[in-house]
Amino acid sequence: MSLDLQLSGKTAIVTGGSAGIGLAIAKSLYSEGVNVAIAARNPERLENAVSTIQSLPTPGAKVISISADLTQAESVERVVSTTLAQFGQIDILINNAGSARAGSFLELSDDAFLDAWNLKLLGYIRLVRAVVPHLKSRRDGRIVNIIGGAGRTPRPGFLPGGTTNAALLNFTRGISKELARDNIRINAISPGLTATERAETLAQQNAQARGVSVEEIKTESLQSIPLGKIVKPEEIAALALFLVSDLASSITGAEILVDGGHTPGV
After folding, report:
1. Could you report the per-residue pLDDT of 164-213, keeping only the tens digit for each?
2. How far apart are CA 154 and CA 161, in angstroms?
């Protein structure tokens, strides 16, 4: 069986698309012939990402960048309106923008929690709210929320991120039945430790909070993964492609863990 994803000609928004998992997903979509709008805060990194994506061979797809702060509702609306103005349609939303600080609970201020909730939790919710009317008009839509294993298995050194992720899992599952009435599918991917710049930052923050070296944190993290390897961003991208294709037409409201077997539970 050939995996013909049949995505060519569709349009996707990828937030946090200038680096890491978001960039890997944007590159994979573009290579399948999908027009891609990548949104992130840093204009310089966005420009570099667009150049990287455009260097890939593709059957006629286009890519644009939109500098946006997704903690601001007006930025969310601008991402959607700019995409529609450029491509005339929206078929796919990849929610990926978001970060949270690691550290000891008693050393984290309210802002550490509020920043994570405003960017990731409310950012995802606002984007879903903004694109759904357009997906409804087409009676078709595919949304993937990149969340994280800490939403299922809390980590004491990552409570701002864990509480955000838990809320997003609740949101994803809760909204899925309502969206299904209009043939809109929404699913979650929860990556484990992934080879990104973000993972490096978290390792440094955890090392500082615990008073140990970054190498000790990395060794400890790797030893906790049954498969003994760090996830590659391209692995997350491959799963995202599957979930937004018609090969996954009966999957909605699901969370798929990609963490080398790290997360316990049934």
Report:
1. 999 999 999 999 999 999 999 999 999 988 888 877 877 787 778 788 88
2. 9
Is-above-0.85 flag for pTM?
yes
Calculate the dihedral angle through the C-alpha atoms of 189, 143, 84, 26, rounding to the nearest 10 degrees. Answer: 30
**Please, which pLDDT band fits residue 152 given cuts at 50, 70 and 90?**
confident
Give dist(CA 81, CA 75) in Å, integer.
Answer: 10
Q: Examine the pLDDT at 1 and tell me if it is beyond 50.
A: no
CB burial string 228-264: b at 16+ within 10 A, e below: eebbbbebbbebbbbbbbeebeeebbebbbbbbebbe
What does the DSSP 8-state code read for residue 156?
T
Q: Count CA atoms closer than 13 A to 34's CA, side-chain side.
A: 28
Q: Residue 136 has what pLDDT? A: 96
Kindly state the DSSP code that residue 61 receives in the 8-state scheme.
-
With contact defined as beta carbons under 8 Å apart, do 158 and 143 qualify? no
Q: What are the boundaries of each domain within the chain?
A: 11-193+232-257
Q: 112-135 burial, b if ≥16 CB within 10 A, otherwise e? A: bbebbbbbbbbbbbbbbebbbebb
For domain 11-193+232-257, the question of CATH label 3.60.15.10 is answered with no
Tell me 194's DSSP state: B
CA-based nearest residue to 221, from 195, 247, 242, 244: 195
Q: How far apart are CA 98 and CA 42, in angstroms?
A: 13
CB 17 within 8 A of CB 39: yes
Tens of pLDDT, residue by residue over 248-261, are 999 999 999 999 99
